[in-house]
């Protein structure tokens, strides 16, 4: 964006009063979340840091999920402290001021009065945080921290955040301080989706589905980025705030790389394109994958693999109802794909083993060493919410689906000679390769993933995403595409 235009927009933000509340989820629900956290703690001090001001001009600020979940405060450089005694809490947001010149570029930040009025929490200057933390540390109450990592998937790598450094310094000043991790409690709360959250997830899935439907109607693409443009343009046009994750548009060989995000390769007639892309809406993420033929029609071999994955997804759907074990959904999906792979000669048998190129204890986890796992490397489900990989209730306890769970079902099969080349040179692998290589070469660079979004309500399992996924429907829509000019 040109600097002059950015200045004008920032100046407009100065005219309009700042807003810090989400219309779809009201302040009472955020207060109830804090109360639920307090009830589970009984007594203690929660210290949480929000996200920092972006250090590039490649996008606006987005708040960290757990910080947003508890505060609904979506401005950068803030902190949150909640003092809990006997299950009763008092909450304070610590605000970082922005200097007047910078405000002309990026807009004003809410003041204390705005926070009190709109969020129902007290507010103080960020400069007071250290003194407040030192005073609270002297009370003998334990400190519960919410680490300010950017994404839970990479929490271990994200070890030098402002929040972790602050707590480390606090402990150094107060060696007797007991520090606990608040994430297990907050994740438990986030795992159950409220009616308001489900409404936002439905809208994210609807917008994302329309993006996938739109791309079926564009002229035959010649590049992956044409597909990306059709998707993300639709997301924005319908009110999505940003892609929920880096859009994956992988054609041919690129479609066998699970998280391929370059999206610059050619889209050649005769190959499949794996398209894993969805929008975020008011902070809530959808996650949809479709696999389509560039030419608009699946070849006979592509149809076989695609239908195998679709059947596996349907089986998992039938086994994803409240009270059922998640293992039933996953196992049924694996069994269908393994049987199909054996029938096609891509594995020696359903139970045939191989020596994986990654670390697996085959004695303790034999399923991970079955040949079929080379072609279906990932699991079939994860939670959805404020993060694209959000907590789900079935992650814990007996690993059963429950009302309020929002999640994906996403089986896949990825066949390439590259996978054979990655195998360690062992007698068992040499026999496996010799047996299956002809069929692997036949299906080489065929990647298929089908992913939809679901929620379990009192009425049962609901598929929130509606993008076309049956072969006949996809081909019918693509057959009506306009010619490329």
Total count of domains: 2
- Uncertain parts: 1-23
Can you give the mean pLDDT?
93
The fraction of residues assigned to DSSP E strands is 15-25%
Question: Which structural category do the helix and sheet elements fall into?
Answer: alpha+beta
The span between the termini is 30 Å
| Main sheet specs | 6 strands, mixed
Q: Gyration radius, to the nearest Å? A: 25 Å
Q: What is the CATH class of the largest domain?
A: Alpha Beta
Which superfamily, in CATH terms, is the homologous superfamily of the largest domain?
Creatinase/methionine aminopeptidase superfamily
* DSSP helix fraction: 25-40%
Give a quick summary of the entry.
With 485 residues, the chain is α+β, with helices and mostly antiparallel strands.
What secondary-structure arrangement, pairings included, does this model have?
Layout: H1 3-15, H2 27-41, E1 44-49, H3 65-71, E2 79-85, E3 88-95, H4 100-106, H5 112-119, E4 122-125, H6 129-137, E5 143-146, H7 162-173, E6 179-181, H8 183-191, H9 195-215, H10 224-237, E7 242-243, E8 248-251, E9 272-276, E10 279-281, E11 284-285, E12 289-293, H11 300-318, H12 326-344, H13 372-375, E13 406-409, E14 412-415, H14 417-421, H15 427-442, E15 446-449, E16 452-457, E17 460-463, H16 471-478
Parallel strand pairs: 1-5, 3-4, 5-6
Antiparallel strand pairs: 1-2, 2-3, 7-10, 8-9, 9-12, 10-11, 13-16, 14-15, 16-17
Helix pairs in contact: 1-4, 9-10, 11-12
């Amino acid at each position: 964006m040109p600097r002059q235009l950015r200045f004008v927009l920032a100046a407009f933000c100065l005219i309009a009063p700042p807003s810090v509340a989400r219309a779809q989820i009201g302040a009472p629900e955020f207060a109830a979340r804090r109360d639920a956290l307090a009830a589970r703690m009984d007594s203690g001090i929660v210290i949480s840091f929000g996200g920092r001001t972006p250090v590039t001009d490649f996008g606006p600020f987005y708040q960290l999920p757990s910080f947003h979940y508890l505060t609904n405060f979506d401005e950068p450089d803030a902190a949150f402290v909640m003092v809990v005694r006997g299950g009763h809490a008092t909450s304070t947001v610590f605000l970082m001021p922005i200097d007047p010149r910078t405000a002309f570029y990026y807009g004003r930040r809410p003041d204390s009065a705005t926070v009190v009025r709109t969020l129902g929490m007290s507010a103080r200057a960020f400069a007071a945080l250290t003194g407040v933390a030192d005073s609270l540390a002297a009370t003998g109450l334990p400190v519960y921290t919410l680490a300010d990592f950017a994404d839970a998937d990479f929490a271990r790598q994200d070890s030098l955040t402002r929040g972790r450094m602050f707590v480390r310094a606090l402990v150094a000043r107060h060696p007797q301080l007991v520090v606990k991790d608040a994430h297990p409690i907050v994740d438990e709360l986030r795992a159950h989706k409220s009616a308001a959250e489900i409404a936002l997830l439905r809208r994210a899935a609807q917008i994302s589905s329309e993006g996938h439907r739109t791309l079926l109607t564009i002229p035959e693409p010649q590049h992956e980025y044409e597909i990306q443009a059709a998707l993300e343009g639709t997301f924005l046009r319908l009110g999505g705030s940003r892609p929920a994750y880096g859009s994956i548009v992988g054609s041919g060989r690129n479609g066998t790389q699970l998280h391929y995000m370059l999206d610059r390769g050619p889209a050649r007639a005769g190959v499949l394109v794996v398209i894993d892309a969805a929008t975020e809406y008011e902070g809530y993420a959808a996650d949809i994958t479709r696999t389509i033929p560039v030419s608009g029609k699946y070849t006979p071999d592509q149809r076989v693999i695609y239908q195998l994955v679709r059947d596996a997804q349907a089986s998992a759907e039938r086994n994803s109802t409240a009270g059922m074990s998640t293992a039933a959904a996953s196992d049924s999906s694996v069994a269908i794909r393994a049987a199909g792979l054996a029938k096609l000669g891509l594995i020696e048998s359903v139970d045939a083993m191989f020596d994986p190129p990654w670390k697996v204890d085959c004695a303790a986890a034999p399923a991970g060493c079955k040949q079929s796992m080379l072609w279906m490397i990932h699991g079939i489900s994860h939670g959805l919410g404020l993060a694209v990989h959000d907590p789900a209730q079935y992650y814990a306890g007996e690993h059963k689906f429950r009302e309020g769970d929002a999640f994906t079902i996403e089986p896949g099969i990825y066949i390439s000679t590259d996978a054979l080349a990655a195998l360690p040179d062992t007698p068992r692998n040499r026999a496996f390769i010799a047996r299956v290589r002809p069929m692997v070469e036949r299906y080489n660079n065929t990647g298929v993933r089908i992913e939809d979004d679901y929620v379990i309500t009192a009425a049962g399992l609901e598929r929130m995403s509606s993008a076309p996924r049956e072969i006949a429907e996809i081909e019918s829509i693509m057959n009506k595409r306009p010619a490329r000019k």
